[in-house]
Amino acid sequence: MSAAASDAPWLDLAVRLATENVAAGGGPFGAVIVRDGALLATGQNRVTRDNDPTAHAEVTAIRAACAIVGDFSLAGATLYTSCEPCPLCASAALWARVERVVFAADRHDAARAGFDDREFYELFARDRATWPTPVVELRVEAAAEPFDAWLADTARTDY
Ligand SMILES: [Zn+2]
Fold first, then answer.
1. How remote is the CA of residue 153 from the centroid of ligand 1, in Å?
2. How far apart are CA 15 and CA 80, in angstroms?
3. Which residues are known to be catalytic?
4. What percent of the chain is predicted at pLDDT more than 70?
5. Which residues form a coiled coil (predicted)?
């Protein structure tokens, strides 16, 4: 699915939010979530302001949109972002079940500005044993119990 002319104004808004965020002391990232042609929510990078390394523009937009619609699913929505989603935000978009993601700048633009997006994509493409941060398995006896409890819970909310 390619981008359409109708995407450009929403993308322009996301880019404007990103640029404005720099003037406000934040990171150069902005995002917009739209469903059925209507704006659901916007987001700006809040990492340094909130001391939250996960407060990327896409994540803050997803959180705001879900709060507004009262649902953990954003099915049918489009996420517009000023820059190609990093692995965190790409995963957040998948978890939120958005219909599509449209971005303006890419991981190479972000790398030029000193951000790790491209580096993390390259990291995920490598064997985890080569990562600078060890991610190791220790399968304790109760490891599977949470999933057993989940599967046994007939009142659970699947997602
Ligand atoms: Zn991100």
1. 33
2. 9
3. 58
4. 99
5. none
For tokens 């958005």, what's the residue?
Answer: 98
Q: What is the pLDDT of residues 91-122, one digit of tens each?
A: 999 999 999 999 999 999 999 999 999 999 99
Instruction: State the distance from the centre of ligand 1 to the C-alpha of 59, rounded, in angstroms.
Output: 7
Residue ranges of the alpha helices (H) in the chain? 8-23, 47-50, 57-69, 87-96, 107-112, 117-124, 145-152
Instruction: Give percent helix, percent strand, percent coil of the chain, each to the nearest 5.
Output: 45, 15, 40
Q: Which residues pair with 35 in a beta bridge?
A: 38, 77
Cβ–Cβ < 8 Å for 54, 76:
no
For the four alpha carbons of 66, 70, 71 and 77, in that order, the dihedral sign comes to: negative
Ligand 1: centre distance to CA 89 (Å): 4
- The pLDDT, as a whole number, for residue 1 is 64
Three-class SS state of 85: coil
**Mean pLDDT, the chain cut into blocks of 10 residues (159 residues total):** 87 98 95 97 96 97 98 98 97 98 96 94 93 95 97 94
Contact 53/40 with Cβ under 8 angstroms? no
